[in-house]
């Protein structure tokens, strides 16, 4: 089948070899093969040698400058992978997107390890820094950071003590640090 005759592709469907066209919007590369990420019509730009998929339905995707919420799914000392949920609880994405947070983007002050700012399972508010996958995210703003955190030992909610920057477990008393937002979900009323 010619590249011009293909009407509609589905996610994961073969578009071309990586050497033929540069993957662009709504595509990804797997083992040297460019594949579609959405249902739509493949467009082969022969002038710029790019291939992209024009979606059948307009897919809401995060873009540069958007502030979104997510959950930390994987962590190392320098990088965290965040599952991006949506713009807020009422406006969630229909598709799954992931963001990458580097230790240099976690705080305005210098930190040795990303574990000083976020931990696995934390709900975070981050800002998108690019418009392509993988999304790079930052927490370098006073309104960005951890919205809700849970104890690393027992899993109970961590409570922010009034006028203190540390979080204390409501169950076991464990004390941890995070880069929390001013409107942190679990704040002490005392």
Automatic annotation (TrEMBL):
SUPFAM superfamilies: Nucleic acid-binding proteins, Ribosomal L27 protein-like. Zn(2+) binds at residues 151, 154, 169, 172. It holds the Pfam family ECR1_N. InterPro entries: Csl4, Exosome_cplx_N_dom, Exosome_Csl4_arc, NA-bd_OB-fold, S1_domain. Its main location: cytoplasm. Keywords: Cytoplasm, Exosome, Metal-binding, Zinc. One of its GO terms (cellular component) is exosome (RNase complex). One of its GO terms (molecular function) is zinc ion binding. The keyword Metal-binding applies. It is found in: Cytoplasm. Residues 65-130 form the S1 motif domain. Non-catalytic component of the exosome, which is a complex involved in RNA degradation. Increases the RNA binding and the efficiency of RNA degradation. Helpful for the interaction of the exosome with A-poor RNAs. NCBIfam families: PRK09521.1. Component of the archaeal exosome complex. Forms a trimer of Rrp4 and/or Csl4 subunits. The trimer associates with an hexameric ring-like arrangement composed of 3 Rrp41-Rrp42 heterodimers. Interacts with DnaG. PANTHER family: 3'-5' EXORIBONUCLEASE CSL4-RELATED, EXOSOME COMPLEX COMPONENT CSL4. Belongs to the CSL4 family. This is Exosome complex component Csl4. It comes from Ignisphaera cupida. The lineage of its organism: Archaea, Thermoproteota, Thermoprotei, Desulfurococcales, Desulfurococcaceae. The gene is csl4.
